[in-house]
Write a structure and sequence with these properties.
This protein has 3 helices and 5 strands, in the order H-H-E-E-E-E-E-H. It is an alpha+beta fold and 146 residues long. Strands 1-4-5 form a 3-stranded antiparallel sheet, with no helix packed on it. Strands 2-3 form a two-stranded antiparallel ribbon. The chain is elongated and about 60 Å long. Bound molecules: zinc ion.
Length: 146
């Protein structure tokens, strides 16, 4: 796209993933779980729950590496309404606001800097830069009146 760095597959992240997926496997196949996984529905519920948790983890970690966590001042994110370059709306040393986003994998937590558009008088944050023109995102998660 615009030369943004791709998400990195670090050994730390891989280890974090291994621990999560091992724990998930244990919940499904470990001895302690078998008394609670008797009926078809119990097994189905557990498998779907685990898949959702793992999906949320992958999504959260991937989003945490997006350049829009802390956009370059030289390339500010565009206002979601008028597409004009936004202005940074963060105080000095202010912690990046936590965002809770509802996804198909459930609630996902992410940090994004706050930006503003003087013309539209809104505050906003961008969810992602990678392929943002290919995957339509729900409008409520694109900007907010924080
Ligand atoms: Zn605007």
């Amino acid at each position: 796209m615009d030369g943004s760095p791709l998400p990195r597959m670090t050994p730390e992240l891989r280890e974090k993933w291994r621990k999560r997926s091992d724990a998930a496997f244990e919940r499904m196949f470990g001895n302690k779980s078998q008394a609670e996984l008797v009926t078809f529905t119990e097994r189905e519920d557990m498998a779907v729950l685990i898949a959702k948790e793992l999906a949320a983890f992958l999504l959260e970690e991937h989003l945490a590496q997006d350049p829009l966590v802390e956009p370059d001042q030289e390339k500010p994110p565009a206002c979601p309404k008028c597409q004009q370059p936004g202005q940074r709306a963060m105080k000095a040393k202010e912690k990046r606001p936590d965002r809770q986003v509802t996804t198909r994998a459930g609630e996902v937590r992410l940090e994004r800097e706050r930006w503003k558009c003087g013309k539209c008088r809104i505050l906003f944050f961008r969810l992602s830069s990678w392929h943002s023109n290919l995957i339509p995102l729900p409008s409520y998660s694109e900007f907010s009146a924080c």
